[in-house]
UniProtKB/TrEMBL annotation:
Its EC number is 2.8.1.-. Belongs to the sulfur carrier protein TusA family. This is Sulfur transfer protein SirA. Keywords: Cytoplasm, Transferase. InterPro entries: Sulphur_carrier_TusA, TusA-like, TusA-like_sf. It comes from the Bacteria. Residues 12-36 form the UPF0033 domain. Gene3D superfamilies: TusA-like domain (3.30.110.40).
Length: 85
């Protein structure tokens, strides 16, 4: 049996923003949600691929999903699901 699909409690669109803005927005969102809630992040800045995992590790949040997507025009996008610890 497969696991149920994860759903987010809040979504952040940080597309087009550069470091440190995506992580700062994630930090603000995490502060507002309850423990166990999931924050979904969409980003275009490649630095989020190391910034967000480090953020989770240092602050005790769970990185549920980290994926890199490419659209039909070969633009990269980064997608994350973070559970507040």
């Amino acid at each position: 049996m497969s696991e149920p699909a994860l759903t987010s409690d809040i979504q952040l669109n940080t597309r087009g923003l550069r470091c440190p803005e995506p992580v700062m927005m994630l930090h603000q969102a995490i502060r507002k949600v309850k423990t166990g809630d999931v924050v979904e992040v969409f980003a275009t800045d490649p630095s989020t691929s190391w910034d967000i995992p480090k953020f989770c590790m240092h602050l005790g949040h769970e990185l549920l999903l980290q994926e890199e997507l490419t659209d039909t025009e070969h633009h990269k996008e980064y997608h994350y699901l973070v559970r507040k610890g």
